[in-house]
Prior knowledge:
The complex is a heterotrimer. By secondary structure, chain A is mainly α. Chain A contains 13 helices and no strands. The model of chain A has no long low-confidence stretch (mean pLDDT 91). Chain C has 2 domains: 37-145 and 312-374, D-Maltodextrin-Binding Protein, domain 2 (3-Layer(aba) Sandwich); 149-307 and 390-430, Periplasmic binding protein-like II (D-Maltodextrin-Binding Protein, domain 2). In chain C, α9 crosses α18. The radius of gyration of chain C is 24 Å and the shape is globular. The chains are: A mainly alpha, B mainly alpha, C alpha/beta. Chains B and C meet through α11 of B and α3, α18 and α19 of C. Chain B: It is found in: Cell membrane.
Amino acid sequence: MKNLLKNQKWNSLLYGVLAALVALVWVYPFVIVVVNSLKTKRGIFSNPLWFTHDFTVDNFVTAYQALDFTHSFVNSLLITVGSVVLITAVSAAAAYALTRHQVKMSSFVYYLCAATMLVPFQSIMIPLVSMFGSMNFLNRTALILMNTGLSVSLSVILYYGAFQGVPKSMDEAAKLDGASSFRVFADVVLPAVNPMTGTVIILNAMKLWNDYLLPSLVVNKNGMYTIPLKMYMFFGETNSEWQLALAGLVLSMIPIIILFLLLQKQVMSSVTEGAIK
Amino acid sequence: MLKKHQYYGFILPAVAFIIGIIIIPFISGIIDSFTNSNGISRQFIGLKNYQLLFQDYNFLQSFWLTFKFSVVSVVLINLVGLVFALIVTHKDNWFNNTLKTIFFIPNLVGGVLLGFIWQFIFTNAFKALSVNLGQNWLNGWLSDETTGFWGLVILFTWQMSGYIMLVYISFLNAIPKNSLEASLLDGASELQTFFNVKLPQLAPAFTISLFLTLANSFKLYEQNLALTNGGPYRSTEMISMYIYNTAFVNFQQGYAQATGIILFVVVALASFIQLYFSRKGERS
Amino acid sequence: MQKLKRLLVLLLVIVTPFLLVACKSAKSPSSQTDKKVTINFFNQKPEITSQYQKLIKIYQKKHPNVSIQLTTSGQGGGAAALQSKFSSGEAPDIIMLGGLPEIDRYKDHLLTLKNMSAVKNTLPRLISGGMTENHRLVGVPVDLEAYGWVINKDVFRKAGVDPDSIKNYAEFVQAVKKIDAQKDELGLQGVFGFNGADTNSITSMSAQFTSDYYQNDQVKAFDSKKFPWEKEQRMKQYLHLVKQYSVKPILSVKYDESIQDLFYNGEVAMIPQGNWVIPTLDGLQDNWTKDNMGMLPYFTKDDGTDELLTGSSWYLGISNDNPSHQKIAKDFINWMYSSKEAQDVIINEMRFVPATKNFNTDRLPDDVSKEIYQVGTSKNAITPVHKQYPNGFANEVIGPMVQRYLVGKTSWDNLKKVVSNQYKQLKEVQSGQ
């Protein structure tokens, strides 16, 4: 019995070391990027695998200016927040109505959402952009509208499941208290599905913050660049100046990673929910 | 509960967005695919685009590549994701929670940034490794057809495994504790417990993960752009990049749109197959 | 329970003004400026951004009521960025255009430049490169560039090869072999630093074998529905030579690496570039090119008349979308092409060779520039035609096919077949046929 316990201890230690090793390998790409962003070009050339004796933070100053970081950050934020707010409002309202009235129209709209989820973005990208282009309407507002249209389907379906879990008696009780339909929805039913609202916000925000393809077709111009767009341009301009490119990469990653570390549990459960539903 | 006009008021915005942003472009896209549109002028040319596509070496090659990539990625990502899930659900402590965070983080970073990170690793870090270790095969990964392909697979596995891990974790956590304990009490080893108790419960997780990975790899663009940009000689150009370049570099927009329609058909078929299997799985 | 909703409302409140401002500012970009006219200049050559900025600063000092906003896009993103500007109705006033396919795409937005003073001085041979299909003049050449081999004279000297004595293909091959034989003593990685990763360089190389066919008529080159194979044998020979004597693996060599590492450090004898590499090299060490850099042509005719190809990859055009900006745009361009002050910046800092008639070559800062001007104004001068290939042909067709050929993944016959077919297909689609 003693031997067995001892064995178990060794086993779990071995397991711990192995798991830690795997995690180190997994995180190493990030480490290597951070390490090299703090070096000069010469240092990267001589040994890109670890620190050399040429620590510098100048790259970050240069990259920050070249990326026009404050501006790009605000653009990314504007587009992401604007889209997410619109998506959440539009899809919550629709899903609520769909669950409260089981009429033909409701199931039609539900299946419409399900069906449009099947359409890959690349299949509509060209006509979508040329449609907005022909109206001379390619800017941040247009991008927000497009993002909303492309994300509403999934969000409606996510909300649909959540609202079904809210008993109709809740609505009725509120109604009897004299609340208007909108009040019932906004003050009573919507707060009851707060976790789902969190999920919808997080899923869409993650996707849109990192989006490149559609923004590159819609807001690829001065004053409207988002972080991924600017990063792509910056990368092209830095040529073989890896130290600058890497500093730019680190800068671009910082906001989302900080936010993630703050909201870890919520993000992971949202992602799981979005995947399984 | 809602009056009729209220009901329509609630659903109208969503329906309008779906029609305006997806349905109309989709229909206009189908029409465009029968034209020789170059973005400015167009003439109706019937099925010619589709005929040409099936003789187009680059199209066939990028489709085949996307397929190969999807199969390899699905296997690798699910394997790694499952192993990660088993590691972090082993015990509930701070150590495993940290691991979980580490495994998931690559999933937060956008495709463009990921592509650049790995471009640095494959060009500079691998080069340094090849010099230090005297291993020549580590050199020039992104300028070779085969290693370029594996570069993309590695990047995608790194990005997606943490995501798929979460799916497996949620199913693993749903397995009743007592059935695991019972199995262990019966004298089964951990490995036996895994195969006899855990694995059968994970079947639906596998279906979900399979199609999540598939869908994501068929739509892969940014990682492709930032890592290899299709090179060398368009050998790592996946289907999304093929569509983008055909439409916005060559300005063959009708032709590109025909490719987009084919992509839709393939994705839709895959989804129906998934639906069929998951329904079947539920019944049995 | 209420927290989330409050957060949402808060976000909405924060975002709405931004959105409104965004919409507004998109519509009226210059609403606040007092009488000052702002024009937009779209540049597709990132390497000369700072010099353009300098020119603009000088000009603005002289014309306080004019403001010029420079936008730079490049590295392959230029065409797409320009497309998005036009399709969003924000066409720049001064546009750097790359070749007739791009001119053709935007011809309805481009102003006729016939009577501008800058145009009157243009080298006559280069005029057709700034025309629409029906010979309406819409662009002024940016500069005179030379295409050929950029050679490291120091390596040639040490190898005992006199570049001036090479007069035909056979002698070129001989020189390559002689240098290759001393590879180890000279510390070379290869004779050529051919940047095989780069489809643009491959494309401009291909122009060495196709340009002669069109005899400087860029409109004819643009109209052509076929890729001219008249010199395919020589093209094949050059590719084999490159394949054999270049740094390997050939497809992993990138543009910057080939110039700043391989060429600058004397690890290769030549690279397939032109005089546009001068600022980069002199940026690494002052006056480096003065003693170390020379140029050699491709030998395709072998009759003693082979010279560097010379022409302009880029042309400046003016948009007709905003009539009130046209005069200012014209004045600025005329100033760049005529005032001594501007030209000093252009020749000494951009290191451009002017594409104008009767330029005093004594003003040019180096021998290579002088040689280029002399070749470019001689009667045998030929303009490279790669900028007139259909859109996408460079990066999607000929570049990748030649790359395949270089690593033995396709036969020459297949390369010819694919290149010919795709050339025709792209040309037909893009001309709306």
